[in-house]
Design brief:
globular, five-stranded mixed sheet, 11 helices, alpha/beta, 55% helix
Protein backbone atom coordinates (compact mmCIF):
# COMPACT_ATOMS: atom_id res chain seq x y z
CA UNK A 1 0.00 0.00 0.00
CA UNK A 2 1.33 3.42 -0.98
CA UNK A 3 -0.04 6.68 0.36
CA UNK A 4 1.19 10.09 1.47
CA UNK A 5 0.09 12.31 4.33
CA UNK A 6 0.49 16.05 3.99
CA UNK A 7 0.11 19.02 6.33
CA UNK A 8 0.81 22.71 5.92
CA UNK A 9 1.37 25.75 8.13
CA UNK A 10 -0.49 28.77 6.75
CA UNK A 11 0.58 32.34 7.49
CA UNK A 12 -0.87 35.70 6.36
CA UNK A 13 -0.15 36.52 2.73
CA UNK A 14 1.38 39.89 3.49
CA UNK A 15 2.74 40.30 -0.04
CA UNK A 16 -0.76 40.24 -1.57
CA UNK A 17 -2.16 42.37 1.27
CA UNK A 18 0.43 45.08 0.58
CA UNK A 19 -0.63 45.15 -3.07
CA UNK A 20 -4.39 45.05 -2.39
CA UNK A 21 -4.47 47.67 0.36
CA UNK A 22 -1.50 49.86 -0.58
CA UNK A 23 0.50 49.00 2.56
CA UNK A 24 4.01 49.12 1.09
CA UNK A 25 5.44 51.20 3.96
CA UNK A 26 4.30 48.86 6.76
CA UNK A 27 6.20 45.96 8.33
CA UNK A 28 4.98 42.34 8.37
CA UNK A 29 3.20 42.57 11.71
CA UNK A 30 1.37 45.76 10.81
CA UNK A 31 0.26 44.39 7.44
CA UNK A 32 -1.00 41.24 9.16
CA UNK A 33 -3.03 43.31 11.62
CA UNK A 34 -4.70 45.11 8.71
CA UNK A 35 -5.46 41.73 7.11
CA UNK A 36 -6.96 40.37 10.36
CA UNK A 37 -9.04 43.52 10.79
CA UNK A 38 -10.29 43.26 7.20
CA UNK A 39 -11.24 39.64 7.79
CA UNK A 40 -13.17 40.56 10.95
CA UNK A 41 -15.09 43.13 8.92
CA UNK A 42 -15.93 40.41 6.40
CA UNK A 43 -17.14 37.87 8.94
CA UNK A 44 -18.51 40.14 11.64
CA UNK A 45 -16.59 38.36 14.40
CA UNK A 46 -13.78 36.00 13.36
CA UNK A 47 -10.25 37.03 12.40
CA UNK A 48 -9.41 33.55 11.07
CA UNK A 49 -8.07 34.10 7.58
CA UNK A 50 -9.63 32.43 4.57
CA UNK A 51 -7.38 30.18 2.50
CA UNK A 52 -6.95 32.78 -0.27
CA UNK A 53 -5.61 35.25 2.30
CA UNK A 54 -2.73 32.99 3.33
CA UNK A 55 0.60 31.72 2.08
CA UNK A 56 2.28 28.40 2.86
CA UNK A 57 5.08 28.74 5.41
CA UNK A 58 5.80 25.03 5.81
CA UNK A 59 4.88 21.71 4.21
CA UNK A 60 5.38 18.27 5.73
CA UNK A 61 4.88 15.09 3.73
CA UNK A 62 5.00 11.58 5.18
CA UNK A 63 5.32 8.94 2.47
CA UNK A 64 4.25 5.37 3.20
CA UNK A 65 5.34 2.69 0.74
CA UNK A 66 4.82 -0.91 1.79
CA UNK A 67 6.85 -1.40 4.93
CA UNK A 68 8.74 1.89 4.67
CA UNK A 69 7.95 5.38 5.91
CA UNK A 70 9.71 8.68 5.22
CA UNK A 71 9.10 12.11 6.73
CA UNK A 72 10.16 15.27 4.87
CA UNK A 73 9.58 18.90 5.79
CA UNK A 74 10.22 22.17 3.99
CA UNK A 75 9.72 25.76 5.09
CA UNK A 76 10.24 29.30 3.87
CA UNK A 77 13.28 29.47 6.13
CA UNK A 78 15.17 27.42 3.51
CA UNK A 79 12.83 26.79 0.55
CA UNK A 80 10.52 28.78 -1.69
CA UNK A 81 6.78 28.31 -1.70
CA UNK A 82 7.07 27.07 -5.26
CA UNK A 83 9.51 24.38 -4.10
CA UNK A 84 6.99 23.24 -1.50
CA UNK A 85 4.20 23.06 -4.06
CA UNK A 86 6.40 21.01 -6.38
CA UNK A 87 7.15 18.64 -3.49
CA UNK A 88 3.44 18.19 -2.80
CA UNK A 89 2.69 17.25 -6.40
CA UNK A 90 5.68 14.91 -6.61
CA UNK A 91 4.48 13.12 -3.47
CA UNK A 92 1.09 12.60 -5.08
CA UNK A 93 2.55 10.52 -7.90
CA UNK A 94 1.90 6.79 -7.80
CA UNK A 95 0.01 6.75 -4.49
CA UNK A 96 -3.49 5.52 -3.79
CA UNK A 97 -4.31 8.42 -1.49
CA UNK A 98 -3.12 11.87 -0.46
CA UNK A 99 -4.28 12.01 3.14
CA UNK A 100 -4.91 15.05 5.31
CA UNK A 101 -6.88 16.26 8.30
CA UNK A 102 -9.46 18.82 7.13
CA UNK A 103 -7.59 19.20 3.85
CA UNK A 104 -10.76 19.35 1.78
CA UNK A 105 -11.94 22.50 3.55
CA UNK A 106 -8.65 24.40 3.81
CA UNK A 107 -5.42 22.68 2.78
CA UNK A 108 -6.31 21.73 -0.79
CA UNK A 109 -7.91 25.09 -1.69
CA UNK A 110 -4.80 26.85 -0.36
CA UNK A 111 -2.45 24.58 -2.30
CA UNK A 112 -4.44 25.03 -5.50
CA UNK A 113 -4.70 28.79 -5.08
CA UNK A 114 -0.97 29.16 -4.44
CA UNK A 115 -0.33 26.94 -7.47
CA UNK A 116 -2.23 29.51 -9.54
CA UNK A 117 -0.24 32.28 -7.88
CA UNK A 118 3.10 30.71 -8.84
CA UNK A 119 1.95 29.08 -12.11
CA UNK A 120 2.97 25.63 -10.84
CA UNK A 121 1.94 23.04 -13.42
CA UNK A 122 1.88 19.28 -12.85
CA UNK A 123 -0.49 17.88 -15.51
CA UNK A 124 0.03 14.27 -14.38
CA UNK A 125 -1.44 15.14 -10.98
CA UNK A 126 -4.59 16.60 -12.49
CA UNK A 127 -4.87 13.61 -14.80
CA UNK A 128 -4.77 11.33 -11.75
CA UNK A 129 -7.45 13.44 -10.06
CA UNK A 130 -9.67 13.16 -13.13
CA UNK A 131 -9.17 9.39 -13.35
CA UNK A 132 -9.36 8.68 -9.60
CA UNK A 133 -11.76 11.08 -7.95
CA UNK A 134 -11.00 9.81 -4.43
CA UNK A 135 -7.25 10.44 -4.54
CA UNK A 136 -7.66 12.77 -1.56
CA UNK A 137 -8.75 11.28 1.73
CA UNK A 138 -9.74 13.76 4.43
CA UNK A 139 -9.77 11.80 7.69
CA UNK A 140 -11.89 14.38 9.45
CA UNK A 141 -14.66 13.89 6.92
CA UNK A 142 -14.06 10.14 6.80
CA UNK A 143 -15.05 10.06 10.46
CA UNK A 144 -18.15 12.21 10.01
CA UNK A 145 -18.94 13.05 6.37
CA UNK A 146 -22.29 14.74 7.00
CA UNK A 147 -21.67 16.65 10.23
CA UNK A 148 -20.97 20.36 10.58
CA UNK A 149 -19.77 19.85 14.16
CA UNK A 150 -16.48 18.15 13.39
CA UNK A 151 -13.79 17.50 16.02
CA UNK A 152 -10.36 19.09 15.91
CA UNK A 153 -7.27 16.98 15.21
CA UNK A 154 -5.69 17.58 18.62
CA UNK A 155 -8.74 16.38 20.53
CA UNK A 156 -9.36 13.44 18.20
CA UNK A 157 -5.75 12.27 18.34
CA UNK A 158 -5.57 12.42 22.14
CA UNK A 159 -8.90 10.60 22.52
CA UNK A 160 -7.41 7.80 20.42
CA UNK A 161 -4.22 7.58 22.47
CA UNK A 162 -1.99 9.65 20.19
CA UNK A 163 0.20 12.59 21.30
CA UNK A 164 -1.85 15.39 19.74
CA UNK A 165 -0.46 18.83 18.89
CA UNK A 166 1.26 19.37 22.25
CA UNK A 167 -0.49 22.71 22.84
CA UNK A 168 0.75 24.09 19.51
CA UNK A 169 -1.84 26.23 17.71
CA UNK A 170 -2.09 28.05 14.39
CA UNK A 171 -2.41 31.37 16.22
CA UNK A 172 0.84 30.71 18.10
CA UNK A 173 2.54 29.75 14.85
CA UNK A 174 1.51 33.00 13.18
CA UNK A 175 2.64 35.03 16.19
CA UNK A 176 6.01 33.27 16.22
CA UNK A 177 6.35 33.63 12.44
CA UNK A 178 5.80 37.37 12.59
CA UNK A 179 8.37 37.50 15.39
CA UNK A 180 10.95 35.85 13.12
CA UNK A 181 10.86 32.39 14.72
CA UNK A 182 10.63 30.38 11.51
CA UNK A 183 10.98 26.97 13.17
CA UNK A 184 7.47 27.25 14.61
CA UNK A 185 5.87 26.73 11.19
CA UNK A 186 7.79 23.53 10.53
CA UNK A 187 7.00 22.23 14.01
CA UNK A 188 3.28 22.78 13.49
CA UNK A 189 3.14 21.09 10.08
CA UNK A 190 5.19 18.15 11.37
CA UNK A 191 3.02 17.63 14.46
CA UNK A 192 -0.11 17.83 12.30
CA UNK A 193 1.30 15.35 9.77
CA UNK A 194 2.55 12.93 12.44
CA UNK A 195 -0.81 12.73 14.19
CA UNK A 196 -2.61 12.41 10.86
CA UNK A 197 -0.26 9.63 9.76
CA UNK A 198 -0.67 7.64 12.97
CA UNK A 199 -4.43 8.10 12.72
CA UNK A 200 -4.32 6.90 9.10
CA UNK A 201 -2.48 3.76 10.22
CA UNK A 202 -5.27 3.07 12.71
CA UNK A 203 -7.91 3.64 10.03
CA UNK A 204 -6.23 1.27 7.57
CA UNK A 205 -5.73 -1.34 10.29
CA UNK A 206 -9.46 -1.19 11.07
CA UNK A 207 -10.44 -1.41 7.39
CA UNK A 208 -8.04 -4.32 6.85
CA UNK A 209 -5.75 -2.55 4.40
CA UNK A 210 -2.84 -2.87 6.85
CA UNK A 211 -2.01 -5.64 9.30
CA UNK A 212 -0.96 -5.07 12.89
CA UNK A 213 2.55 -6.19 11.91
CA UNK A 214 2.67 -3.62 9.08
CA UNK A 215 1.56 -0.92 11.48
CA UNK A 216 4.17 -1.82 14.11
CA UNK A 217 6.97 -1.96 11.52
CA UNK A 218 6.44 1.55 10.16
CA UNK A 219 5.88 2.95 13.64
CA UNK A 220 9.30 1.63 14.67
CA UNK A 221 10.84 3.24 11.58
CA UNK A 222 9.14 6.53 12.35
CA UNK A 223 10.39 6.50 15.95
CA UNK A 224 13.93 5.97 14.67
CA UNK A 225 13.64 8.91 12.26
CA UNK A 226 12.26 11.21 14.94
CA UNK A 227 14.97 10.26 17.42
CA UNK A 228 17.62 11.38 14.90
CA UNK A 229 17.04 15.03 15.73
CA UNK A 230 15.09 17.83 14.14
CA UNK A 231 13.86 19.98 16.99
CA UNK A 232 12.41 19.95 20.48
CA UNK A 233 8.91 19.30 19.15
CA UNK A 234 10.09 15.90 17.89
CA UNK A 235 11.51 15.03 21.31
CA UNK A 236 8.26 16.11 22.95
CA UNK A 237 6.23 14.10 20.44
CA UNK A 238 8.30 10.97 21.04
CA UNK A 239 7.98 11.33 24.80
CA UNK A 240 4.22 11.81 24.59
CA UNK A 241 3.93 8.89 22.15
CA UNK A 242 5.89 6.61 24.50
CA UNK A 243 3.72 7.64 27.43
CA UNK A 244 0.43 7.10 25.63
Amino acid sequence: MRFSVFAISPVPDTQAARHLFGLHDLDEESVSKVLFHHRKQQTGSSEVLRWDQCAIASLTVIQHAGGDVRLDSMSLASDSERDMLDAFYRAARHVSHMISWDGARYGLPLIRFRSLRHAVSHPEYWQAVREQRDIHLDLRHWLSPSSDDLPALDETARRLGLPGLLETTEDAVIEAWLDGRDESARAFSELTALNTYLLALQVFAVTGELTGQDQAQVQDQLRAQLSGGGGQHRVAFLNAWSAS
